[in-house]
Amino acid sequence: MIPNTKKTILNNGLKILTEELPFMRSVAMGILVGAGSGNETTKESGISHFIEHMSFKGTARRSAYQIAKELDAVGGKINAYTAKEQTMYYAMVLDKHIDTAIDVLCDILLNSIFEPKDMAMEKGVILEEIKMYEDTPDDLIHDFFAEKILHGHPIGKPTIGLRKTVKAINRQDILNYRKKWYSPKNTIVALAGAISQDTIDRLNNYLGSWSGRQPAPPSAPADIKGSLNLKKKKTEQVHLCLGVKGASQVDENRYPYSVLDNILGGSMSSRLFQEVREKRGLVYSIYSAASPFHNFGISYVYAGTSKESLKQVVDLILQQFSSIKKEGVGPEELSRSKENLKGSLVLGLESTASRMMWSARSEYYFGRVITIEEIFDKVDKVTQDDIIRLANKFFRDEYLTLAVIGDMQKLPIKEIHC
């Protein structure tokens, strides 16, 4: 799958990925910039996300209303997201309206004007977004955990930013940040769907003369050390993340680690879902997740429970860490996890948008588009010994970090071991 993705590099270094899917009636286009919250200084916290918002507030050619109206008028969708290491602007349209998507997205990328009056209004929007986020403890806990396990590393800071830093951002800050990070050699344009033969020529007309500096290297690896952390907040539940160091995006261990993570808490038949929810009824939500970045990774278990059950839930999670380290997993459990991962991957690539995003991220991290067949091959080769090896590599006391948000004065846990 995704065997027909073509890469074109313009003279200015901009990479264009195109996957022709002639049986589709739609096209998805995305512009990925290799800059996210992990690239920000402490003073800049939230600026990547703020730029993403402001890019829809008007260009030299279009007002914010015109940007929205042009996509609405052709039944299309336009959006963006900011992550730790990238920002992406994207649109989905019927194939006959691809010119509209190209024109609007390239206009946003190159010609956004960042009017101070619009910035002042959008700061209010983002400050309300921060308040909403702070009122959602099952979201807030993930950033609290990342902050503590990464000990001041930029990737550990919230993508949305902090109130004081968002309030302080001015137009010159935005222009300086864009000059540093928004450049053709740090940008990937990806398209998937019913693409015509002249798509590259049209993109070259818009973006071929764009210039900019050489991108900075990815952020340095984080210093990951374990700790126990409590944020007191009036909530009905106690929310926790318990995690460790994990595999990076480019680490060959990433694929066997994904199998391990899936066994631990990636599905309804996973160990933690069965042991903590189904057998004991201690939680409604519990799952494990891996967050691989360019030069390092973290992984964690999330759970929401009562104050009274907190210690028991933490103990049960640690027991599973220890069990996998010592005893590994059985052949049936291993096979089930592999097939679950492969099925989920294929089902997640059934739309032009998901295929476009896959291509862009793959190019960003690996310099090429990784095929599904390659991943299947790596997953199929994972052995029971691999699972034990990685559990012992990453499930270690020196990495164990517990972050808790809830209405309690102190943690009922003095130390944690696995």
From TrEMBL:
Residues 169-341 form the Peptidase M16 C-terminal domain. Pfam families: Peptidase_M16, Peptidase_M16_C. Residues 16-160 form the Peptidase M16 N-terminal domain. It comes from the Bacteria. One of its GO terms (biological process) is proteolysis. InterPro entries: Metalloenz_LuxS/M16, MPP/UQCRC_Complex, Pept_M16_N, Pept_M16_Zn_BS, Peptidase_M16_C. One of its GO terms (molecular function) is metalloendopeptidase activity. Belongs to the peptidase M16 family. This is Zinc protease.
